[in-house]
Specification:
mainly beta, Methylamine Dehydrogenase, Chain H, disordered C terminus, cell cycle, Cdc20/Fizzy, repeat
Length: about 500
């Protein structure tokens, strides 16, 4: 075999124009030389016959630098034995620099070399002396530990809000503080706590109202009913936080000045206990046990300006929307009514929407703070559902079965979430993500059903009053410090616009 190859090479040297008949491709000749003695590969067909097109050519091409007997062949299959580099993995500019540098005869001093190395590390993140011209792996070379690119700001940008993923915040599972609430009435239909914009928490305990200053911890007894059989059935702060409305079981609505700790007026228009109250600027709305809702204009002597008769049983949920356009009411008749804003005057008023899907009493009503036409409602023991409504179209946007009595709902002002308070069977608070209504967290600790929820003015803390005669404060909506400072500047305290007009 070796002799045959030698003669073939000799023929190629003496007569280059004469092709060797049936000459195998160059790769098989190399294989024969490496394999040593043995049968000639010319007569062997490894998988299929050798490429016959080379023998029919009169002037075969020759590989530069090789003998004439070695004929270059083009593989019939893509890929073959040739390597075609991917230019995307090459550092062409770096390669040109290194090739040019090799042809530079100038010798640099050691000091200059160290300086150039430092420049290269600062600009490129690695030493060019150690860089490869062809980077076959396709992976960039790791920068030294602690390296910071000075031009990073030119190539960096924040992710868009839709694509950014926020890490889950920490929600404490235990209350931040627990307060005693002795003799609080275990009545589902009453609304016994409210938190003012001036950071006072009003709590109705049987026939008394107490104020707790969250900033200082001071406790003030604001009032106590004269008759022992009369109890407080509802409390509600005006937006500015300097006046507190109080509803009683004797069908009265009282108005108290907090700074002077003095009752300003006593409004009597109902014929049954007042279980719920809600403010809209100078209009105070009250819901009674007979199913009637009264509007009181606290600026004038004739305070009773309108009556809404859309419920057949006790009104236990009442809330004005933040823009003052709608009033939502829920009752023991399982109905939810949405009323338009009225600016006084007699006559009959009809709701613009009536929702009948709940199968239990609706006490929990809450308006979304960033979508003023979205309302959340929750049903009692026979229903146990939270429903989200669009009051303009009347459509039910979402429904979730909570598997327990819904006593109260609050929307977070810091996150797109809402929190609900529950009774039987777990007496827990649940945080829901909006609009997916996915459960974010459960807060447990009460040993009896939760009666009411209210939120601190900064939106970070939720207070829950339960039949176990305790108040628990949950810091479940803690804000980022920077956002907190911005919100505090925007929500600085303002003096009441009706301070001089209440009689």
């Amino acid at each position: 075999m070796a002799q045959f190859l030698f003669e073939a090479d000799l023929h190629g040297l003496l007569k280059l124009d004469t092709p060797i008949p049936n000459a195998p491709p160059a790769r098989w000749q190399r294989k024969a030389k490496e394999s040593g003695p043995g049968p000639s590969p010319v007569g062997v067909s490894p998988m299929k016959p050798a490429n016959r097109s080379h023998s029919s050519s009169k002037t075969p091409s020759k590989t530069p630098g090789k003998s004439g007997s070695k004929i270059q062949s083009t593989p019939t299959k893509p890929g073959g034995d040739r390597y075609i580099p991917n230019r995307s993995t090459m550092q062409m500019e770096m390669a040109n620099f290194l090739l040019t540098k090799e042809n530079d005869p100038a010798e640099d001093s050691p000091t200059k070399k160290e300086q150039q190395k430092a420049w290269a590390v600062n600009l490129n993140g690695f030493d060019v002396e150690e860089a490869k011209i062809l980077r076959l792996s396709g992976k960039p070379q790791n920068a030294p530990e602690g390296y910071q690119n000075n031009l990073k700001v030119l190539y960096s940008q924040k992710m868009t809000p839709g694509s950014s993923r926020k890490t889950n915040r920490y929600i404490p599972s235990n209350p931040d503080r627990i307060l005693d609430a002795p003799e609080i009435r275990n009545d589902y239909y009453l609304n016994l706590i409210d938190w003012s914009s001036q950071n006072f928490l009003a709590v109705a305990l049987d026939n008394s109202v107490y104020l707790w200053n969250h900033a200082t911890g001071e406790i003030i007894q604001l009032l106590q009913m004269d008759h022992p059989d009369v109890y407080i059935s509802s409390v509600s702060w005006i937006k500015e936080g300097n006046y507190l409305a109080v509803g009683t079981s004797s069908a009265e609505v009282q108005l108290w000045d907090i700074q002077q700790q003095k009752r300003l007026r006593n409004m009597t228009s109902h014929c049954a206990r007042v279980g719920t109250l809600s403010w809209n600027s100078y209009i105070l709305s009250s819901g009674a046990r007979n199913g009637h809702i009264h509007h009181h204009d606290v600026r004038v002597a004739e305070h009773h300006v309108a009556t809404l008769a859309g419920h057949t049983q006790e009104v236990c949920g009442l809330k004005w929307s933040l823009d003052g356009r709608y009033l939502a009411s829920g009752g023991n008749d399982n109905l939810v009514n949405v009323w338009p804003c009225t600016q006084g005057g007699g006559g009959d008023f009809a709701p613009i929407q009536t929702f009948t899907q709940h199968q239990g009493a609706v006490k929990a009503v809450a308006w979304c703070p960033w979508q003023t036409n979205v309302l959340a409602t929750g049903g009692g023991t026979s229903d146990r559902h939270i429903r989200i409504w669009n009051v303009c179209s009347g459509a039910c946007l979402s429904t979730v079965d909570t598997h327990s009595q819904v006593c109260s709902i609050l929307w977070s002002t810091n996150y797109k979430e809402l929190i609900s308070g529950h009774g039987f069977a777990q007496n827990q608070l649940v945080i829901w993500k909006y609009p997916t209504m996915a459960k974010v967290a459960e807060l447990q600790g009460h040993t009896a059903r939760i009666l009411n929820l209210t939120m601190s003015p900064d939106g970070t803390t939720v207070a829950s009053a339960a039949a176990d005669e305790t108040l628990r404060l949950w810091r479940c909506f803690e804000m980022d410090p920077m956002k907190k400072k911005e919100k505090e500047k925007a929500n600085c305290a303002k003096s009441s616009i009706i301070h001089q007009s209440i009689r």
